[in-house]
Fold these 4 entries.
Entry 1:
Amino acid sequence: MIINLKTDKKPKTKATTLLLLKGTEISGKGRGKWIFVTHDILPDLGEQIIESLKQAGTQRLSLQTTMMDTNDNNSPITFKHEPPLLHIAASSLAAGKKLLHFVKSTCAMRESGLVVTDQRVTVEIRTTGTLLCLPLMVQSDTSLQPNEVYLMALADMANKRMEQNGVLLEKLFYTIQNELFDTSSNNHSVEEGEAEFHVSFEPLPSLNSWKCASVAISSKSQGGETSDDVEILAFGGQGVGPIIDECSNTTTKAPSCRRWDAIFRLSRENGAWAKSWKRLSIATEEHSETVTLQTSAGSFEVNRKTLLGTREGHTACVLPSISSSSSKDDGVAIFGGRTGGPTSPSNDLFLFKLQDDDKGVIGTPVDVRGSPPVPRFGHSMNALASMQSDDIIIPLAVVSGGYSGKAALSCIHILSRSLDSDTGKTYFLWEHIADMPHPRCYHSATVLQINQGEDELFVFGGMSEPDDPFSSIEKFVYKLPIQRECSVPSKEIIISEEFNIPESIGAAACSFYMLPDKTGMMLLSGGVQNGDSGCASNDEAPLHIIKWKVNSNGATLRPERARYSVTGCKGELDLGSLVHHNMLNLQCSRGSISAAFVGGGVPSFSFGQSFARSFAVSITSASAINNREGKTSKTNTARQGSQTTVGPKSKQTQNNRNVTDVVYVAPKDAKSARLELEKLGYFDSRYKLVKVEVDENEGDKKIVIGLPITQHCSSLSLSEGKEGLSQRLQSLVIGWGEEMAPFSSSQMSKMANKAS
């Protein structure tokens, strides 16, 4: 079940007070016309009803007099007060049953039911508890039967029942909100127990497209180390597309939902994300159809005559590096997808290379050998770990599952780079290496190198019959070890139930390797969940973090689902419609990792498309943050030569205040610093700014302003000092510390609402 829940909007009543004059003309679902309609509670409802009835009687009398109408025009006028009526499309029969249970048991709307067809499951929510329906008469002399006293009492009853409709709808709204959604957005523990990680979200410009293929390319400095600059590329997809900045003062947006053949780019430079996406152009300067692309995975000849075309359900990955190279040499492989209807899957393989900020080269490789996968869409494609090797055959990526247009697939293929011994040229090689125990499509997958020299493919969720809304979602996690020494692994697939995560379709996954304690990390986000529960309840997390640790002997420990808390978000944290999206690995540093949610959404047969918002996600180890408490005094001492510092205070809450991490700035710089912190998503809006008096030399006092910051910003100050901030902030910040800060007005309101 997919419902876009906006907690700041109350449900609008569809109940209506109506007067229907029968037998005059055909309108709506039956004979007659409406002579009075209102959707509101009216203080003068009785007077308006009486006036409408008299006008109707006058019209009847006029017809009889002027047109010599001999028909019976004394047919009754029907007074109707309608109860609420809602239709909600559910993702599965189990989801529909769950919602129906809430509606009947909690809201007492017992006339509700399910409408099940081959195409969809619809929950019809209705009740007759507030229904009023009775006949009224207008005599030939326009006198009313019943009389006006009765009609005034009837109007009062209709107004009261309209109020009851509002109470019913509000109760239904909060039942759905509390039972199916987790609506808290800041500083809440997703899982019980002490948090091991702290997660913060930063909104990105929305892609407004689902089933696209996206990759993230990290820029590299001259020394070969990864910098903070990132390029996100999105290929094709279905949707209205992003708001595009065409280097002008205006922005444009695609008017309707369609399948795209474009390549979009979103950049992060010096820690700041671009405000909008840009559309890349394809380089066409050279006249030759065939061109050699130099990539970090090798040199490949491609035919530029075949372009991407309109495509959805395809996948892409950045090919791993087999030599030290700059990010400009990163090659992107794009595979499969649907170019038309369900019967037009493809097994096209494309190679893309970013030339500069606004152009790229794309084409189909000229030399592709082996046994290619059958045409498919709804599959996964994951890059294997980078390695420097002189081997003839080097595995680059793995493709698993998908839908052929007729059935879900279970096959797993490896795409390798190989060297022709006769010509000395490189080419792509497809090899079928294994089959999953069960076919699946619209699953999520990621690759993690837990042991040196061995990649492991993890496949989560998915479904076996995409055309059947009642087909079960796979519950098991498949784990396939891929030995790098040989091109075709022989180890069998392991079915694992250790992960304790809900099965889902349309989810996304990515993996990291967090230093310094060699913790393997996998993130799993979004998707539509199924099973006995029907759909996600409010105890399900929007993000699942799975971790491995390697002990001192090098042995891999059992995977664990990590506990975490969401510590901040710039703006509203809206994770609705997070289906058929991409999750990209952005960066991994000491004690923290970052990823991005890009694209995603769902169609609706009644309400139009709904697109997921894009976010940059920062995940920081709680141990790195907790170390700050023990190191604050030492850090403060080390900074005293050039920065103002304030000693730590004990963690406590009193008088609507709470101890929080802050950065100190001069009073004249407070506004500029706050704007910069908000821009980077580092400002903690739960608290107000605090004025602090500090000691200077010779007993003088100095006033500074403490600005509350997020846990992620605080961890940056611990591990990297000022260098972890933007250049603008570096020039404004004079120190770090902890202060007892008052809660903001919005936070106080949230706390009051929660308490009530």
Entry 2:
Amino acid sequence: TAPYTLHYRYSRTIKMVRISSQSNRGGLVGGGKANSSSCKWKVATYKILVYIAMSSVCFYGGILAGMHASVNGVGQMEINVGCSQVGGEKGMPGESKKERMMQELVQKRYDEELMKHQLSKKNKQGTTENNNGDNPWADAQNAKFKKTTSSFLLGAARTTKESFMDVFEMGLPSEDIKSGGSDVLVLYQAKSSLPSVNHKELRESAIYNNPKNCIPSATADIVTESCTTMNVISTNPRDNQCIAIVGNYESYHVQKWMRLPETKGALDRSLPLRFVSRVQNSNGVNAVKVPMGKQSKYHWNMLGPFLDSFADSKSILDPILSRINKNKVVTVLTCNFGQSELLINFVCSVKSRGLDISNVLVFATDEETRDLAIGLGLEAFYDEKIYKDVPTDEAGVYGDKKFSAMMYAKVVCVQMVLMLGYDVLFQDVDIVWYKDPMTYLQNPNMINQDYDVYFQDDGNRQPRYAPYSANSGFYFVRHNDRTQYLFTALLYAGDAIKATGSHQQVLVGLLAEHSSLFGLKVKILDQSEDGFPGGYHYHNDHKFMRRFVKGETDTYLFHMSWTNNKVNKIKFFQQMGDWYVNDKCVSTKPQIILNSATYESKSLIAPCCAAEPLVSCHYRDKPSKIPCRDSQPIDNGGRSFW
């Protein structure tokens, strides 16, 4: 038949090209001698060689042009109804990359021609189309999916993850699945959702098995061209995971089932699957705890004074926000005296780089921090009624009671500013700036401006932070009804924050729900780019950190997250050359620093801020601006960063 003839002809052409190239180096294959007594044979041989050379040039030129068109065309990718992947095979020893690509393109063309032949045969038999449109079940025996799933599954196609993400920017953190994750699988649930009749081969191949039983592929815009609704599932398989699709009342939540004991215990394959929390892990641990009655009462006791005093707080805040905002944006920090040296370091580091922080507002949870912020030239807000139950000293470790209490303060400050109609850039105090982050976040040439909220990528991929892994210590919020209600819901979820010990975990859960229910648009700043690194990079990505300490990255800020306590945060900043606080100002009240009863009118910049960063070594296995090989490691068996 024609397709097999085509395959034979193409194979012979490639074979002849190889013979021709060899003949130019050492005669025709086989080493036969030319017959000098016969001029006719010489002329005939010459003509044959010229013909072969011309054919080779035409063939190679056509193939290379096709390669150029399919690979370099802007936003273009050929529809592939076969299995061949250009550049996907290693090929035979001694073959060049171009030769392998040409053979793969030929094989792809063969697959497509064979598919055309089969479709043509079906059309002649009248099995694929009738006057009322195509019938996906006309050839039920050859269908990919059987009639028993026809109410929710008719066909399938593929597109590359890169193409899909380019067309549908979902805001999710970039996750590099190293093996077998470069394609996106699109399932068609109705005849009307299949690719249009303009892409008939793709449409047919999505429904029916092709010669190699492959799922066809095309660009994302083509495979989704007929979809009026598309539900996207993001998955990274682990623990022998399966996905079940059930034809039933539509659900926008995932039910999770695991082989776990009813009480405590890890995965047990001998047990039946049972329904569990979506954040349950293979060890049987559920990171989300239901708030108990005492935690709810504790939250109500804190929430009551805030609601009662909101009108008074608004009258104080309104003129401050009106005075300091830049283009309706206010940068918000919250701090107690236990974290005061980190606040000082932020201000000193910014001053050393000449950056403008005139729109920064510090929500102080005690009088000492309020006075310190004022002495540093910042605007400050303090309300004793709201913050009376917030401790003044720092948390011992991440997630302890003092840490959880400070999380309440982080919720209140953002919610209040949003309620007054301003966009909010919120950040923790353990951050240093190299450039003003708003020059990125408000620049349409740098990032899509259509999102409601933008978060630093935390880097933690535990189920409890899925699907966003948003870091609650640095984010930008645009004021609108969706974001205002998001942070109102977070304010009312204070008992869940108390129960889990994590403001971030509760916030990520609300992001997922509000995105699904209210259409909240969430964007995670890409971790693979240099702009917004943090503790994940510091502790896990030494390749990035080596570029960073050499000044080879285009970085806006650094967030010393993923660090258990303040003591180590300071040490890590000192190693990185980002510590600017003189010792006399560490854990010292403003009046003692200035040694004056009238300290309120004096600046703390001169006594507290070093002109140059104060660099010192502490741990050899952590990133540092200078070699710290002689220091002890902080981690067991930690190797030197240098």
Entry 3:
Amino acid sequence: SGAAAGGESRAAGASGASSGSTSGGDGLAASGGATGRRAPSVRCHLVVEDGEERWVLDDVIGKDDGLGVENLRGSGLIAGETSRSYRDNFTLTYVTGRSVGIGAYLVRLGQRTIQKRTAAPILLTGYQALNKLIGAEVYTSNEQLGGPKIMYHNGVTHQVVEDDLHGMAAVLRWLSYVPRSKGASLPFSPGTASIDPVDRTIGFVPRGEPYDPRHLIAGTTDSAADGADAGTAASSAAAAGTAAAASDPEASWTSGFFDRGSWTEALAGWARTVVVGRARLGGIPLGVIIAETRTVAATRPADPATPQSMETTVQQAGQVWFPDSAYKTAQAIRDFAAEELPLFIFANWRGFSGGQRDMFDEVLKFGSYIVDALTEYKQPVFVYIPPFGELRGGAWVVVDPTINEDVMEMYAAPEGRGGVLEPAGIASIKFKARDIREAAFRLDPAMQALAHAARAARASGDEAAAAKAEAEAEERLRRLSGVFTQISHHFADLHDRPGRMMAKGVIRNAVPWERARPFFYWRLRRRLAEFALRGRITAAAPQLSFAAAGHLLRSWHDSTATSRGSTGTGLWDQDLRVLQWLADSRDTLEARVAALRRDSIADRVLELGTTDSGAAIDGILALINRLPVDQREAVVGRLRREVLFGPMPGSAFGGGDPLLAGLPRP
């Protein structure tokens, strides 16, 4: 006690116990008279026993700071700052050694995590402390609690590397996709067009059967495509195939949608029915989300601390959102949004898994997280139904462009499908057995003849002939049922095609797969350049919404087109033409933005003056008095001429913008 009190008390003992007693006392007491009461490292009260004064210790504060709850308070401060930093900055954690307690929480709060495969566990409590708590030697290493086999498969760790060299290479590669500062332009690399031309066709073409979605995204070698195991995610195989093709020019390469060698997958070990990562299209970085089309196995390990627990494996079908994959999708969207990346979603989901287990595991909650994340997205979002893909029911709902119309657009390949239910499902509801019977008797001449024969025989009293005709009709109906069912399925499928989607205005266009790469490249460049200018408009006039800025920009474009003699309702939809207009009209657009800024400032000053004219005048006078003498005289002169605000200097719009450089003439 004397040591804990900082050495200020000369002796300590148990209050209420004699020197020879072996029983416990009522507390700890410090001798030293008034010194103990005044000690800043302890709090105590006076007790008199048998004529002896003792200072009983109530609290030990300690001489040194950082021993207990104040340490936890500091950890809480760090945790809060890290959480806010994820929203305000780019955060990335490379776990190269053991991270324990608040260190583990900081890893997760920073969201993006790269973990070294060995000797770098992410822990709340070490295995030895847990063994003491349990009272048995249950765990043998920290790897069982927080190694990659745990953290890579539960979504905490995004990537796993073998050593620090590969770890820093992964960090640099991740940084290559991200703007150098918040609000800066994307790290656009037009030089990649010479390596992988934008206008090439896409070699990998889905055929309707299950396939590795990474081949569609990143391409593959023939050997990797032929040897892919349909029962596994094959992330490492796809990456190895890409690397091998890049190093061996003789390898037979089948190209994918994005630039060759630009794909980097994240969270590959978790929720494998969805694949997420980052790639480049013509040098422009994007976030990518695509559905797994094959059945995968989800394994939950047994807990050594619970002897009754067992490892469980659940088969998860492709093209379906499960609770974990829905959460993974929402988390990826939030990460991409924080990195200010455009987003490309290859929409190929038949719906959400709504069984009892999945409903209990909160699939409804995590599916709604997807909508929440998309409503906050600020960069262009493209939703594309790939060839032989389908988007149905609730899966369509959570990625529909009306969630965030300012930034989202939906497209489909001609072979893509979209609807409430699959054709077989809708036909089973709308075209039942009685409907098949009615259609057969209405459309098949043989059925009509048999029905007529049965009626005629019954009218003449020949029941045997009537029964025979009815039996033949039933047999023919049995043979025709399959044909009419196929017809109903085909008829239902006609309602799910892109032609109807466009007619109903739910998609913007049908884009053939072989030309999807150049189409979306120019659309992306146009949207990024347009968004940059719309952002400058809203910054100049904060009273305008992002959508209103878009309408204003279009009116400027239409007025320019009209003045040049160009007419037509489709000019605004021609991406290359609009990009060229943005490049050619830099000075004009800058002048209009500057004028908009002046008008906005004038409106705000007028509003303030209307609210309190005296305060507004005082503010204007204070501003004039703070100006240098020459500027003050110029302002006073302008005020005398009743001109309150002049043009504001600004940088030229689009100067050095790579998105507006090197445009071919439309």
Entry 4:
Amino acid sequence: ARPKKATPQLWSGSSWVCTIVLHRRQKGAGDSANMASLTNLRGLANLAPGDAKGSYSRANANEIPMDEVGEPKRDGSKSPRGGSWKRGRTSSSKPFLVLLGIFVLATALAFVAVNLGMGTSLLPDYYSAGASTVRIEKSPADNREYKFFTMPSGLQVIVVSDPTADRAAASMDVSVGSFSDPLEFPGLAHFLEHMLFMGSRKYPDENQYSAFLAQHGGSSNAYTAAEDTNYHFDITPDHFAEALDVFAQFFISPLLSEGSTEREVNAVENEHIKNLQSDGWRAQQLRKSLSNPEHPMHKFGTGNLDTLCNNTRTGTSKTHCHGTRKALLKFYNAHYSPERMRLAVLSKQPISDLENLVKKSFGSMSSRGHANPPQWDTPVRPAVGARMVHYVPIRDQRQLSLTWDMPPLFTHFKSKAGSYISHLIGHEAQGSLAALLKKRGLVESLSSGASTDQRYGASFDISMSLTEQGLQQKDEVLNLVFQYIRLVRNAGALKWVWKESADLAAMHFRFQEKRDPSGYVVGLASNMQLYPPQYVISAPYTYGKFDGELIRWILAQLTPDKADIYIAAPRFKDIVDKQEAVYGTPYKLKMVDAATLKIWAASNIDPAMHLVRANVFIPRNFTMVPVPAKHSTGANLSAPVLVVDRPGARLWWKQDYDYKAKKLEGAAQGKRHVSDHSAILRRHGTLGRADDIVDHVV
């Protein structure tokens, strides 16, 4: 069963007697997105916010039909009141009544437009060409200026003005990736990523883009994911306009020439050869190969010379890659539509200059009518019960991971249900799973996380680096893992745990530091594919309403019989009996027997494990302590102060008077190990509990 979707909150609106058409009025900065072009204001009560991508669901089956540009269709389709959209002629015998009607209509229009501020489209305002009323949520520490707007072609854009930036950057994210590869051309989306930089009609030189960036201290890169392909570059701000114009042409009129096709196939092949010795790539492809053959996860996403050139190396390059360019052009025309693209740019210029720059460079883009990315409803994992996979890595490592696949959860990003669970399972405090496994010498590290930022589905993962003893006792490790999951499940959905995570996230967001421009615009552009534009920055930190039902639903999925268990160690070379087809990884797949599943599902929970206690160190008062007058000039002359001095532990503290940052930085050193505890100190955020901090660190 899929998680129950939250009931959308309906928009409320007044009921009016007259039938009118509303026109756009720009709303104030604090207003919500405009909605409009309604034949009757009663329709407001039937408009409901839809999924987290910003589209609106239609709660009324008799919705007004819309054309491609958000205007009512004039095609004779029926209106909500049973009439026709075709216009009839006005009777010439009643000119006075006609004029009177126009006057009444205009008066009603002006009144409603002023008082209600409606727009001209049933779609949210940020999907309308030129819309700019979205207020993007940002950290209080963020002094950059943002603006969101949509081009007439459907391209959605965020421009960021940072007067202090010494680099300018841009990123374009396209909602198509390796999942959409044709069956006969595995890796085609990745190959197009390579090919797009090979010249355009306006700038036909293959090397012009890379040469221009290199001449002006710039760089570029791209990546192909399952559902997205991202292109980005950075450069000195003084040369950003020229670079952006070259960049724009890749999405308007790329050459994708035959000669470039043949050369870039070899570049993809070289990349594949490099990946052959990477344990990360090998493990990823092993999981893909063992996924549901009916799901695109099963595909080989990066491609190589064989897959891109009709699976043969015979003949000359022109003959064995004969069909590749044709497939490339077909793929580009089918998927690279501006409605499916998201652009983010950042530079030091004023926001209006950046907006004009984008409109100048991307203004010639035209809609291709491909607004919706592909969707897949097939389960990622075959419904076969619990599977255990032993495989041989390249490096000497002992890794154990558990994975559960679930339906998409990105529309529930405000609930942070997955974060709630990973917060508990990945905790390292006394009583936690990690603390017990480390105490017994079974693991070196443990991490857990919910991957909820994919459109095709979600997953929950627990990963451990095993000791040699832990590898020998892997069944005991797994038993303890499932015991702790049951412990969390039995405790139910605890609001205080969720609130604790919410407070930590809010603190991190409040004091968020600037990232490098290139990485920042990549994050903005990719987030625009998942979240409404106002949340492209804040979505990972946003905690909306506590959803205990969703938390319990996810926990109910984390059972032994639904898990895929992967164990990597060199010693398994003696038991493996298969080879993964692409990377040649040796592995052995076996189903977990019923007796083992019964033990994992019902064994008594180890009394050494319990839920972690509340974190008393989370700060909630961020008022700065006044700087003494003698330090007001900025001279940082104070000596460190010994605030804890006891057998086995000492804590020194030194006040900072220069940066005035609301955080602590520190490190702890012991006889047995040295470890950076700056994260702990930042999380505690107070010296009023210095002894408690020492207890936690020691």
